[in-house]
Amino acid sequence: MSYRRLVVALLAVFAVVTPAWAWGPLGHSIVAALAQRHLSPAAEAEVEHLLALDHVTELADVASWPDQIQDNPADQALWKQTRRLHYINFRGGPSCDYVPPRDCRNGECVVAALQHYIAILGDKSQPDAVRLQALKFVVHFVGDIHQPLHAGYRDDLGGNKFQVQFEGKGSNLHRVWDSGMLYTTGLRWQAYTQKLDAEGPVALPPPIAPLDNPYAQWAEESCRITKDIYPSTHKIGQAYVDAELPVAEHQLRIAGRRLAEVLNTTLGH
Fold first, then answer.
1. Do the beta carbons of residue 31 and residue 255 sit within 8 Å?
2. Which end of the chain has fewer CB atoms surrounding its CB within 10 Å, N or C?
């Protein structure tokens, strides 16, 4: 095999198995902006205080930072430490029941990551720089856990191995859900946030018994959605977008509401 063919083959493999990042910048910005619109005065003041360290005022400005650090040479150690925290691969398929020793080994999943960083964010004995970093991870991971295929099954890496043709190009189902469907609207995050927020408060799913971990419940909810989003064909057209885009938007709205509640509870005292 020639060197050129070898490179092409390797790139094709990486395109299949490398996890994509939930929602992409558009979706993460929407979740962050929806949450910021519904912060309590105390939480809003604390968020503004922490964001000022980065000379920004919007949660949307930092919502994709945990993905972006992979491209910054200075952050490679942090990226290596956190890259497995963006998702959870359920190993008990077809069950979506969360079993920590099986599904979150060594605490390396988005459920445990949320517990970890929310605790740091709420600890005012920590330096502000440490709490700001925790805030960025919390904002991002709440978005991640509500992207259904970030709580999918290990056997196909949350849809990364399910190859599709979308808008005339080769892709995979995970990437379509990360950003492909959202970008079909042509809306930027500010207008998209306004559109979704104008629909009013979103109803949250009922608690899943016997879970007493809200982040585990969020992951199970997302996992259960995946059962209905795999298309019967590998060519995705407008009919699929029409059926599934409302599901994605509903998840964005739920994520925004829950993120606001997390920040109000953690920072509102």
1. yes
2. N
Poorest-confidence range of 17-31, 111-125, 187-201?
17-31
Q: Which tokens sit at 135?
A: 């805030």
Strand 163-166 relative to strand 169-172, pairing:
antiparallel
Domain membership flag for residue 8: no
Least confident of 91-100, 232-241, 256-265: 91-100
Buried b / exposed e along 2-11 (16+ C-beta atoms within 10 A):
eeeeeeeeee
Cα distance between residue 149 and residue 264, in whole Å:
27
Give the CATH number, domain containing residue 263. 1.10.575.10
Q: In what order do the strands lie in the sheet with 235-236?
A: 169-172, 163-166, 235-236
The answer to whether residues 234 and 165 touch, using CB atoms and an 8 Å cutoff, is yes
Instruction: Provide mean pLDDT across the span 27-35.
Output: 98
> Considering the domain boundaries, does residue 143 fall inside one?
yes
- Domain-located, residue 15: no
pTM attached to this predicted model:
0.91
Query: Closest Cα to residue 266, out of 167, 119, 148, 141?
Result: 119
Tokens 């995050």 map to which residue? 189
Range of the domain at 215: 22-267
CB 139 within 8 A of CB 114: no
Residue 246, domain member (yes or no): yes
User: How many separate domains does the chain show?
Assistant: 1
**Is residue 22's pLDDT more than 90?**
no
